[in-house]
Design goal:
heterodimer; A: about 170 residues; mainly alpha; B: about 325 residues; alpha/beta; Rossmann fold; 2 domains; 7-stranded antiparallel β-sheet; 7-stranded mixed β-sheet; globular
């Protein structure tokens, strides 16, 4: 009997944690979108107002931030500093590929950044401002969508986790 | 062995090598050390052969770095080469060179200037930028210390510096002379205490500033206004930095004269240069004629190449036009 109670408790706890983990993915994605918006805002300031070179501008922009996008930008800055055979657009795409399967990054913001990278650094300040504005606008929209999805699915996975745990425990009991 | 010598020579202009795509880099590094040692320009033009200018003439370069007289045998520069070069010389940051692009050049670390041409985009105020950039002229500038040593006695009197105009055709060492003159007057030398110099380096040619840091030695008492139009820069320096001497390159606009007169009224000495083949040639140009007629300059130096680039051909007393030099010196 005691063994059944202990195992049922463990099953409920495990399923609850699994549900919370599934729910965390949505919250983490929202966090990453917000971090990305901050990085782009800093990057725009560095590029447009201080005329800092792109690699240094990237490094300055990510200094105080964390999250999955930071790793991408760190790698991007290193590639640019190495001045190897990549063009800027190629380097951007190669670095992006490495985070494509990250569970905390949505396909939508990945594609926004993919398109943004094709224009980055390749024009005068005026045109760069337009691309930043466009990317920020699109990310804002994605943030709102991610919030709505997070609210409904996040709650659903949390509840599902507990219910699944209880369900299995009842069947086993 | 040849490659090692080429690498060593290229080390002296490493920022230029770093700014080339790998295929062009490989070609340049394979060029004969004799040509590389006196390299003055690398010419990259889309759809045309890669060229270098050295030892007083230009050469077409083949894929293996050998030179040829037949343009068709030279390596034909592609659109991709142009695009990659532009990315590399701008550090993937075209936006950071908006002002420079408007003036048709980008300055690299080390003070190397890269001229570019393409289609100009205009608005009411003039050129806003260039698009469809199709050619680059990479100039390998060399800082020659003590290039002005033989010139110094003609532009100084005791511890005073005389108002000086240097006249020279292009590529005769005008900027090299001006740079070393600035350095020596700023640092001082035996019998001459260094003085404060304000340098207006409109096209980043003299000090070769990269991100505000001079890449060439222009002296310890020199304040540099980099990328600033000469006329505005001279007035700014007079107001803010109290220089004894203002040095600037290539005067020729009406507003330059006004700024020079302001400097004279403030008791500041001017050392400047102008494109000209000699004194008579200078008198044919309205702006220079006006300055010469007013006898603003106490010394007029004329450069040429009778004894090689940078030869001081003539020195005139600006007041009475008397020649002060018996024979050309270098």
């Amino acid at each position: 009997m005691l063994l059944k109670v202990i195992s049922s408790t463990l099953i409920i706890i495990s399923c609850t944690l699994l549900g919370m983990h599934m729910s965390y993915r949505y919250n983490r994605r929202i966090y990453n979108i917000r971090v990305l918006q901050s990085i782009l805002a800093y990057l725009e300031t560095e590029m447009i107002y201080y005329s800092t070179f792109l690699s240094q501008a990237i490094r300055n922009s990510i200094r105080t931030l964390s999250g999955e996008w930071k790793a991408f930008f760190v790698e991007m800055a290193s590639v640019l500093e190495d001045k190897n055979e990549y063009s800027l657009a190629d380097a951007w795409q190669e670095c992006l590929k490495k985070i494509r399967n990250n569970p905390y990054i949505g396909k939508e913001e990945y594609e926004i950044m993919y398109r943004f990278g094709l224009q980055l650094g390749n024009g005068d300040r005026q045109s760069q401002v337009k691309y930043f504005e466009l990317a920020q606008h699109q990310l804002k929209t994605e943030e709102k969508k991610a919030q709505q999805i997070g609210l409904s699915y996040g709650k659903m996975y949390r509840s599902l986790g507990i219910l699944l745990g209880i369900g299995i425990a009842i069947v086993l009991f | 062995m040849k490659q090692k010598i080429a690498n060593n020579l290229a080390y002296s202009f490493q920022p230029v090598i770093d700014a080339l795509p790998s295929n062009l880099k490989k070609i340049i590094l394979s060029v004969s050390p004799i040509i590389l040692g006196e390299l003055e320009e690398i010419r990259i033009r889309q759809g045309r052969p890669l060229m270098v200018y050295s030892r007083g003439r230009d050469y077409f370069l083949c894929v293996d770095g050998s030179v040829t007289n037949h343009p068709a045998k030279g390596y034909c520069v592609t659109a991709e080469d142009i695009r990659r070069t532009l990315e590399l010389i701008s550090n993937y940051s075209i936006y950071a060179f908006e002002e420079e692009l408007r003036n048709g050049y980008i300055t690299l670390q080390g003070g190397y200037r890269i001229g570019l041409s393409g289609r100009a985009v205009l608005n009411k105020e003039g050129i806003t930028t260039f698009k469809h950039i199709s050619s680059f002229n990479i100039r390998i500038s060399r800082e020659i210390l003590n290039a002005a040593s033989k010139t110094i006695p003609y532009v100084t009197k005791g511890n005073d510096v005389l108002h000086t105009l240097i006249l020279s055709p292009p590529q005769m060492g005008k900027t090299t002379l001006l740079r070393d003159l600035t350095r020596q007057l700023s640092n001082g030398f035996t019998g001459f205490r260094g003085i404060k110099i304000g340098l207006v380096d409109e096209r980043s040619e003299i000090a070769g500033c990269f991100q505000g840091i001079p890449q060439n030695d222009v002296g310890i008492r020199t304040d540099i206004l980099d990328g600033c139009p000469k006329a505005i820069g001279m007035i700014l320096l007079i107001r803010s930095m109290s220089p004894n001497v203002i040095v600037t390159d290539e005067i020729g606009k009406p507003e330059d004269i006004i700024a020079i007169e302001d400097a004279l009224n403030a008791g500041i000495t001017i050392i400047t240069t102008a494109h000209s083949h000699g004194l008579e040639d200078a008198r044919k140009r309205p702006i220079l004629k006006s300055l010469l007629d007013k006898k603003v300059f106490k010394r007029i130096l004329v450069l040429g190449n009778s004894l090689g680039t940078g030869t001081l051909e003539k020195v005139y007393d600006g007041f009475d036009g008397q020649e002060l030099l018996d024979h050309p010196i270098r």
